[in-house]
Amino acid sequence: MSQDALSDLPRCVRLRGALFFHVDCAGRWVSEAPDAKVLTPLIMPEAQHLMDYHVMLKGACWAGVTTAEPPIRLSEGDVVVFPRGDAHVMSSVPGLRAEPDVDFLARRPPQLPFLLRQEGGRFLEAGDWSPNDGS
């Protein structure tokens, strides 16, 4: 192994699937993700571990685990990783909370990779938008 642990990571970890959420938000907004123990049986029942991450393409927001730790501010180009799959919240201002919405996964388990878009607090079906629509 090299001295650069990040370069060795792909050789040590076998990635088997992905679930992508394309989130467009404006004004006051919040999106909350449940603990991986809730998501894993719905999207990859055979997986031993689920890890969440978010990439800020535009704008800024606040992100943090749903425990007592304060959130951190993310700006364009930042990445936040929740390696243990902790329940977490992303919001326009610190302190906003919401109920995690995973009902759509229970109704129709996705084929991976799966793209989902959230606008104004509601999830849009894949047929309602295009990843190349300029967003």
Automatic annotation (TrEMBL):
Pfam families referenced in this protein's UniProt entry, alphabetically: Cupin_6
AraC-type transcription regulator ligand-binding domain sequence ranges: 4-106
Keywords annotated in UniProt: DNA-binding
UniProt-listed InterPro entries: AraC_lig
Gene Ontology molecular-function annotations: DNA binding
Keyword DNA-binding annotated: yes
Domain of life: Bacteria
Protein name according to UniProt: AraC-type transcription regulator ligand-binding domain-containing protein
Species annotation: Nitrococcus mobilis Nb-231
High-level lineage: Bacteria, Pseudomonadati, Pseudomonadota, Gammaproteobacteria, Chromatiales
